[in-house]
């Protein structure tokens, strides 16, 4: 017999797409697409650090869909190849990608709980299973653009690294800590 249950946030209304401006979906869509490209660059980075061909690299990462796991793999691998400033520099970029991954997960998995047209702010919320608390992120035009700019920056960093183009050493990390105003 089916017993209805109350789950977190089930008393919140579902928001139709028409409740948000088109430009919001354009920017969020671009963030998600660019993050997919960044995730692919992380694959390439792992292949390069392991010095494997495309076929072997694809087979190796075929079942690893978690960006967090890929970041941890790269973090371990760079320690075998770099030291000193280069290691610190690369690790700092990995930290930024980790933050971007958390924001990306928010766009994909969190639930929109408020939209303020006058400030163009949207707030997302996620119930953190096991912790009994909610995590919220608030975004507006400015910080959405900062997320997108940071994604492009990291895409170029990892792409340059993969191509063995030493310009990767010139990509100074751009932190996005204030983006999303997590609470």
Structural account:
This protein is mostly helical and 183 residues long. It has helices at 22-50, 54-61, 67-81, 84-109, 141-162, and strands spanning 111-116, 121-128, 133-139. The chain contains five helices and three strands. A three-stranded antiparallel sheet has the order 1-2-3.
How would you summarize this macromolecular structure in one to three sentences?
It contains 5 helices and 3 strands, in the order ααααβββα. With 183 residues, it is mainly α.
What are the key terms here?
5 helices; 183 residues; three-stranded antiparallel sheet; mainly alpha; single chain
Strands ordered across the widest β-sheet: 1-2-3
Q: Helices and strands: which structural class? A: mainly alpha
The helix-strand sequence is: HHHHEEEH
Q: Fraction of residues in helices?
A: 40-55%
- Into which percentage range does the β-strand content fall? 5-15%
Give the biggest sheet: 3 strands, antiparallel
Question: Looking at the structure, what is the overall shape?
Answer: elongated
Number of strands: 3
* Span between termini: 39 Å
Overall mean pLDDT stands at 81
What are the low-pLDDT stretches, counting only 5+ consecutive residues below 50?
178-183
Query: What's the quaternary structure here?
Result: single chain
Number of helices: 5
Rg value: 19 Å
